[in-house]
Write a structure and sequence with these properties.
The chain has about 375 residues and is α/β, with parallel strands linked by helices. About 35% of the residues lie in helices and about 15% in strands. Bound molecules: pyridoxal-5'-phosphate.
């Protein structure tokens, strides 16, 4: 189909998901939990090489339960990158804690270790050691974990890795999500694999994951009646969603390969244009290339990210601006931030290109032709 819509990052089923769902129906494990949840958790821990994993209703829920277990409370500080999706920071506000935003560095677009140190010092000057550092691997690109981990260790601050966009990415051979005290994953519809909606919390601390499952199922104390001595949440993943997840895990490596292939196609075709640049992988780092992003150099073309986006849209192709930095968002603007102009410039000059794992070369050609025509005009 000549003009079939190309989405930014649509779900891509592998083929076995329906059989797992059928199995759930056949055994009447429709109700929450069930054997697929256990199996999906084992799949994930095995893949990431972490000790334990709790499958949850969303990545946001996973982050919330991580903050709760790190005892984040009212007026506590939690450090978070400014260049990320709002879900990275919203759970800080659920706890009535205070986000402290840190800008990006240029090599990975993730949390700048130098500004992180400044943010930590700011908190310490008020005799309030941050309760956690949330590290995001944006668009799949691993953050500078060594430098960040050193700062966290020096000050004794736990790291929560928001690996919602980076499942399958590695840093010095180890999976993102497996470095922090906690790692969070998302299986939202636009992520590299999806359960239609879902997330997971991973940790090398088995007790913490057991506690996560307890908190996520309304915190029922062991008793035949309903007995509660702590606040509970309804955050568990259902057996049906986990059935989809099991099928998706069988194709995860293929999905990473496809996303990397998209990136390579875009880069080889479009980087000949002086106005367009891509984000290279640093050494010893492998990005899953969840979304391919470009930067437009306004000194080289009169085209802007927006004119490129509108030209693509006129051909029924979806593209999207980069994440708008959180310190510029009305809901977060009042909170402390340690920012240069890196994320703001990335936001104003960037565009996310369609990056689904089912894109064909014909699709990619259609997209690139439009970008070339807009840049050249
Ligand atoms: C998608 C996403 C989340 C939230 O995941 P949900 O499963 O949608 O709640 C958190 N952080 C980042 C960086 C994300 O991209």
């Amino acid at each position: 189909m000549e003009n079939e819509r190309i989405y930014l990052s649509p779900p891509h089923m592998g083929g076995t998901e329906l059989a797992y769902i059928q199995n759930a129906f056949d055994t009447n494990w429709i109700a929450p939990l069930g054997p697929h949840v256990d199996a999906f958790e084992n799949n994930l821990s095995g893949f990431l090489q972490v000790k334990a994993c709790a499958a949850l209703s969303s990545g946001t829920a996973a982050l919330h339960l991580a903050l709760i277990q790190l005892n984040v409370q009212q007026s506590d500080y939690v450090i978070c990158p400014t260049f990320t999706f709002s879900a990275s920071a919203n759970p800080i506000l659920y706890q009535k804690a205070i986000p402290v935003f840190v800008d990006s560095e240029k090599e990975t677009w993730n949390m700048d270790p130098e500004l992180l140190e400044e943010a930590v010092q700011f908190c310490l000057r008020q005799n309030k050691k941050p309760k956690a550092i949330i590290v995001v691997h944006l668009y799949g690109m691993p953050a500078k974990l060594k430098a960040i981990q050193k700062i966290a260790d020096d000050h004794g601050i736990p790291i929560i890795e928001d690996a919602a966009e980076s499942l399958g990415s590695t840093y010095y051979g180890k999976h993102t999500g497996s470095f922090g005290t906690f790692g969070i994953l998302s299986f939202n519809g636009n992520k590299i694999i999806t359960t239609s909606g879902g997330g997971a919390l991973v940790s090398s601390n088995l007790e913490a994951i057991k506690k996560t499952r307890f908190l996520a199922t309304q915190a029922r104390d062991p008793a035949p009646h309903y007995q509660h001595s702590t606040i509970g949440y309804n955050y568990r993943m259902s057996n049906i969603c986990a059935a989809i997840g099991r099928g998706q895990m069988e194709v995860l490596s293929n999905r990473v390969d496809s996303r990397k292939k998209n990136f390579n196609y875009y880069q080889s075709r479009l980087s000949v244009l002086p106005a367009i640049t891509f984000l290279p992988e640093p050494e010893n780092v492998s990005s899953n290339r969840w979304l391919t992003t470009i930067q437009i150099d306004s000194t080289q073309t009169s085209a802007t990210p927006n004119t490129i986006r509108l030209a693509l849209e006129s051909l029924n192709i979806e593209s999207r601006p980069l994440w708008k930095p959180l310190h510029l968002q009305p809901i977060f603007a009042q909170f402390p931030s340690f920012v240069a102009d890196i994320s703001t410039n990335l936001f104003f000059n960037g565009l996310c290109l369609p990056s689904g794992s089912a894109l064909t070369e014909a699709h990619l050609d259609r997209i690139c032709s439009s970008v070339e025509a807009t840049i050249g005009s």
